[in-house]
Amino acid sequence: xxxxxxxxxxxxxxxxxxxxxxxxxxxxxSQYFWxxxxxxxxxxxxxxxxxxxxxxxxxxxxxxxxxxxxxxSLHIRDSQPSDSALYLCAADDSGYNKLxxxxxxxxxxxx
Amino acid sequence: xxxxxxxxxxxVAVTGGKVTLxxxxxxxHNNMYxxxxxxxxxxxxxxxxxxxxxxxxGDIPDGYKASRPSQENFSLILELATxxxxxxxxxxxxxALGGDTQYFGPGTRLLVL
Lengths: 111, 113
Prior knowledge:
Number of strands of chain B: 11
Largest interface: A-B, 24 and 28 residues
Largest sheet of chain A: 6 strands, mixed
Number of helices of chain B: 0
Oligomer: heterodimer
Number of strands of chain A: 11
Strand content of chain B: over 45%
Helix content of chain A: under 10%
Order of helices and strands of chain A: EEEEEEEEEEE
Largest sheet of chain B: 7 strands, mixed
């Protein structure tokens, strides 16, 4: 069974800082890797995904995936107070459209 | 954007009572999911479905049943509710492809007394 771990559990950064969130997974056959963001009291919403080794950038957000080390990460450039939220990483259970989520990282960006 | 709705949004139930949570999606997605979210546990998958008439056990199915009577609707049923099932429940839908986005409903806050 897939096991997804996130670190750190929580993080406080100043506005404008670069933020890095980490995720490890256990199923070496996983193909799909996601970051979801959940603002307080709201539904989780997909932020970014990556399906092959390497890096993918969308605006201020970058995902890195290293399948050999069973690790992927999310980097936020120029962090904004509106980025304050719970960040959930997820990896698929190989062969199924079923995701396993980590416990989340609470990010607070202070103005 | 995909539309997923849930009802009720808030529910108070008594221990031993039956609770039904409903989910509707209007995007013709094949897959639907029920998760619960508790502080310190992230999102945990309870049941999911690949289409009308199908239900599959997720990672924490004990104490829950699911029903998918149509493409649009997916219900989560607690036959004998317990206080440990107090949580926020999210429904999600997505297409059949492994890499497709899951779209979440607004959540149902359930309190079992």
